[in-house]
Amino acid sequence: MIRSVLAGWLLLAVMPIASADVALLNVSYDVTREFYKEFNPAFIAYWKGKTGEAVTINQSHGGSSKQARSVVEGLDADVVTMNQANDIDLLAERGKLVSADWAKRFPYRSAPYTSTTVFMVRKGNPKHIGDWDDLVKPGVAVVIPNPKTSGNGRYSYLAAWGYVVKKGGSEQQAREFVTRLFKNVPVLDAGGRGATTTFVQRGIGDALLTFENEVFLTRKELGSDAFDVVYPSISIQAENPVSVVDKVVDKRGTRKVATAYLEYLYSKEGQELAARNFFRPCDAKILARNDATFRKLDLFTVDEMFGGWKQAQAIHFSDGGLFDQIYQVK
């Protein structure tokens, strides 16, 4: 009888471990919702087939920088999938949540896909917007997410600045140009999806500056007869980095599955799903197969034009930085 009771206890002790689901939290930025709605079930099926283990994946979305601060303040993200390296550096430097060498852990500086800043305009482009110069004309209203809370907004700001410099303009001329641009911005939403809602549903603005994938998704959902996409002559490459949150996965025992989850972004299926959701895959062959979707553009990087995200953050987006000075003029 004693042996039987002990055996029962042992069975009860083992069963929860054997059948327990693993849960991950992916803290991401605003305009990845649709992508991860497709990617997460694909990974769950892959992991189940490979290990027999069931995985539940929860998502959190918002402005990239706001999301990063939430993780620093205690949101237990197993992985973060952001739109700028600066936000993951914040987790390493301020929160001590991520190893300082996080960008070396996965290929392409831990950015499995990229995007770029383009313009979405009303059907027929009634304001005849063709490039950056048209956005600073009187009477043109431009919707941009807040660069203080949104990586999407930061990329738009830096794209406009870099456009001037790459054409041979001075830093002072770039500042004047961006000042004129933000004088035409009627509202600053916290994130990219909020800016899309302002433009599409509230009918505010003549042009929306946002990521290429967001424009394509909006046109796919609402129909291509509602809005047009305008590709500027020069724009910025938006690298979308990812990282395991070391302190959390070690505490929760989820490092193995969290790492596999991010590795799967680089798999053939992960890259195909990225392209299907209008992110530019890092796999050159898959990108080439989708060249009808992804136009070849004159792109510059944050490193090339601004000396990296740390320098760009300190000069342009820190409290009292150039953006604060520019937007106060409005």
Summarize this, please?
This protein has 330 residues and is α/β, with parallel strands linked by helices. It contains 17 helices and eleven strands.
Descriptive notes:
Strands 4, 5, 6, 7, 8, 10 and 11 form a 7-stranded mixed β-sheet that branches. This protein has a 4-stranded mixed β-sheet with strand order 2-1-3-9. The chain is globular, with a radius of gyration of 22 Å. It is built from 17 helices and 11 strands. The chain has 2 domains: 161 residues, D-Maltodextrin-Binding Protein, domain 2 (3-Layer(aba) Sandwich); 157 residues, D-Maltodextrin-Binding Protein, domain 2. The longest helix is centred in the N-terminal third of the chain and has 19 residues. The chain starts with a helix and ends with a helix. Helix 2 links the parallel strand 1 and strand 2. With 330 residues, it is α/β, with parallel strands linked by helices.
List keywords for this structure.
2 domains; alpha/beta; globular; disordered N terminus; D-Maltodextrin-Binding Protein, domain 2; 330 residues; four-stranded mixed β-sheet; single chain; seven-stranded mixed β-sheet
